[in-house]
Amino acid sequence: WRVWAFYMVLAANLSEEQVLKQACPSCDATQLCNCSSKGLDFIPPGLTGKITVLNLAHNRIKHIRSQDLQQAVNLRALLLQFNEISLIDMDSFHSLGKLELLDLSNNSLAHLSPAWFGHLFSLQHLHLQGNSYRDLGKNSPFSSLRNLSSLYLGNPQFSTIRQGNFEGIELLDKLWIDGGNLSQYEPGSLKSIKQINHMIINLRNTNVFSAIVRDLLHSVTWLEVREIKLKVEKKSLVQNSTLPFRIRKLTFKDASFTDDYISRIIILLKEITSLQELESIDCVLEGTGQWNTRELVSSGQSFVEKVSVINMMIQNFHMFSDLAGMESQIHKLKRLTIASSRVFMVSCNLAKHFSSLLYLDFHNNLLVNNRLNETICEDAWPSLQTLNVSQNSLKSLKQTASSVSRLPKLINLDISQNKFGEIPDVCEWPKNLKYLNLSSTQIPKLTTCIPLTLEVLDVSANNLREFGLQLPFLRELYLAKNQLKTLPGAAPIPNLVAMSVRRNKLNSFSREEFEGAQVAAVHLSLMECHRSLVVSLACALVFVVILVLVAVGYKYHAVWYLRMTWAWLQAKRKPKRAPPKDICYDAFVSYSENDSDWVENIMVRELEQACPPFRLCLHKRDFVPGKWIVDNIIDSIEKSHKTLFVLSEHFVQSEWCKYELDFSHFRLFDENNDAAILVLLEPIQSKAIPKRFCKLRKIMNTKTYLEWPLEEEQQEMFWENLKGALK
């Protein structure tokens, strides 16, 4: 019967392994088990503790049973997205205490149970979006997930968030909620989370948006709102909230605005004094910039320093206003990006009031030269250091240079991907210009139009056949995707550090192209010329020094002294004497293993069988197993009335006897203390005693010790004297 049972179990195991191997060939002898897109309607049996990543995505699994994952105890990532899961047994994940990533997104879960996650103590990333649950239940499903870092929730049917739904979560790096149809939000529901670095929420309800912002003022750093169609909101976003706020960045993506709401939201956001960055991506503005500037001005200054508008759709962009009256609202702005939004100019009057702006990005818009000339009028953008007008409709390099020359502090200029075609011989540029990007501008050659002040020049993807400019300060030169047949000369660009010449027509190099007076004059350090050799020598030197230190330490017992010092420091913290109730032995016996025959068979028998018997502590018999031997020695000495040293030539050569002696130095050896008993088993020459045991030498020279006599008639007197000393 037993053989039959064993055979059946073995056959079942082999059958499970065969099923697993057939379903997931990649699971064989590997930690990564990829069973995705296999048409499976069950979790294959035979999963073992060696698997750390299990990918079952894009299958037809409907039910996760208790036993399915029971043996996969070392699983770190479990991917179950895009299945048909509607049922999960309560204890299905109980054995997955090491799981860090669980993806149950895009299934058919109609509710969430706290029991599923109760034992997932290591879980950091949880994906639950794209199911069919309408709420998170009455309590928090996540109360046991103390290490959770990212949480993805919601679906098109998700409609309700209640107080207590997020209890147990204190810190999240990312929270993503698909709440396109979220209509009920109990105020305070998100307040239990103390810190959220980045929160993304799909939302259409303006009232819910306002309530969520109020709850997140003190916790979220970056709030990203998607798909919202904002309506005018009269209530304050900071009702009864106390400073300081945490929110630094607010992003609207795929949102829809009106002119009225733009005016109102700017006023409301001024109350959030911590807000520094506003961002709009792929949004629609149903208006032409007719904002309520009078109300905006009366509401005070904005604290926002960075504004980014990317791909803003304005139906009647050609009718957009010049934003007159907004001048007082832009003084503190430091970075402005308006990209892919069909901008064709900024009024001169408005441009003059960007007094603090350092960075301006207008790439992929509709700027032409005459509008650029109006946008960068005299005294406009007075602090600007970086300007990007790439991918516009600029045609004249001479006019473009003339326009930007009005920017006295400009350092970085990107005018790439404009169709200049021609390049003049002379151009006027800002005096401090250091970076110039002229890539993909269809220029056929380079002339002295290029400013001498440059440190970085990018003229990639043009029709250049040669490079003969003299640029004394240039450090980086990008010439990729041109028609060059020879390298630039070294002498005209003496400070060059990096040069890119890929995808040209170079086919040979002359010696002169690699030789230059400046290069010959350079004197590099030994480290620069022979870095590998210097590093190797340094490593070898360090190794030799370590080797010498180890040898010296071994010769002079440095390790012994260090270990002794540590033990001594620990022992010094203890009381000098153990309480009487803790004394367990009459004597702790310190002896060499080579003398064990005399100690254990003669001395111990004589003393422990005496009347009354003595209690002796021997390391072989009485030390606590598993305890550090030094601690055993210290404790044994402290718990003994006396310490009995059996001295011999072997004793003074024993490492552990040295420890025992040394501990006795500061615990027991005192000229007015008789706690130490010395038994001389054989004559010892004084030179045999290590010099560091100077106190032992002194005691042997000044105090009486017992000598073991070889004559039997004198041995009885020896035992009487020893027993008397022990009493």
From TrEMBL:
A single Gene Ontology CC term: plasma membrane
Signal peptide: 1-17
GO MF term list: transmembrane signaling receptor activity; triacyl lipopeptide binding
Keyword terms: Disulfide bond, Glycoprotein, Immunity, Inflammatory response, Innate immunity, Leucine-rich repeat, Membrane, Receptor, Repeat, Signal, Transmembrane, Transmembrane helix
Entry keyword annotation includes Transmembrane helix: yes
Alphabetized InterPro entries for the sequence: Leu-rich_rpt, Leu-rich_rpt_typical-subtyp, LRR_dom_sf, TIR_dom, Toll-like_receptor, Toll_tir_struct_dom_sf
Cellular compartment(s): Membrane
Membrane topology category: Single-pass type I membrane protein
Disulfide bonds: C27-C33, C348-C377, C427-C449
Keyword Cell membrane: no
PROSITE patterns: LRR, TIR
GO BP terms: inflammatory response; innate immune response; toll-like receptor signaling pathway
Parts of the chain that traverse the membrane: 533-554
Boundaries of every TIR domain copy: 583-726
Family: Belongs to the Toll-like receptor family.
Protein name: TLR21 protein
UniProt source species: Ciconia maguari
